[in-house]
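Aim 2 progress update. The chain analyzed this quarter is reproduced below.
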Amino acid sequence: FDPVLVERMKRIIAMPDVPLLLAADENDFAKALAYPDRDVEEELTLIEATRKQMARIIRGLKPDQLELTGCHNKRGIVTLEKVIQTAINHIPHHLPFI
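Predicted structure tokens:
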């Protein structure tokens, strides 16, 4: 699900107006995209590369850019900082289920 969170961050950073951030059900993604059948090492490599890229982008931002916002279609206005926090907490949240 990291690519969805990263896409939200990129939309908030790059789009001039408050971008729409679409909700997505992780369970639907897991089922439809065959998560159990995917190669674990490949998935971890993808997560690592994506997070490194986003870390580089985020480090280049000015502090006030963390307050940029997007409009989540179910949660309303969210800041870039909140989406980053969600991404940071995402994997630790799932570890007990693995």
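The two ends are 15 Å apart (CA to CA). The first helix runs from residue 2 to 14. These observations will guide the mutagenesis experiments scheduled for the next reporting period.
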